[in-house]
Amino acid sequence: MRCKWAKLLLSHYIEQGLDLKRREELARHLQKCPACQSELDRMVATVEIIQSMEDVDLPRDYAEVVRVRLEKG
Questions:
Q1: What is the pLDDT of residues 26-57, one digit of tens each?
Q2: Can you tell me the distance from the alpha carbon of 65 to that of 63, in angstroms, rounded to the nearest whole number?
Q3: For residue range 1-35, what is the model confidence (pLDDT) as tens digits?
């Protein structure tokens, strides 16, 4: 497996969205490729940070404010 293809599959790998064959193929690549393993480690760390964040209550008019700003460009 080439790095370009491996990097495209990393998010699916994290989410366990790959079939067994692809998962094993990517796992073998990660064992041999420090660059892709490092990319995976960074992605996992990012997911963990995001999951640890608290939910924020938005103001009731938030969607309207965003819509108006988008229309203004």
A1: 999 999 999 999 999 999 999 999 999 999 99
A2: 5
A3: 899 999 999 999 999 999 999 999 999 999 999 99
3-state secondary structure the chain: CCHHHHHHHHHHHHCCCCCHHHHHHHHHHHHHCHHHHHHHHHHHHHHHHHHHCCCCCCCCCHHHHHHHHHHHC
Q: Where are the domains of the chain?
A: 3-72
Predicted local distance difference test score (pLDDT) of residue 22? 96
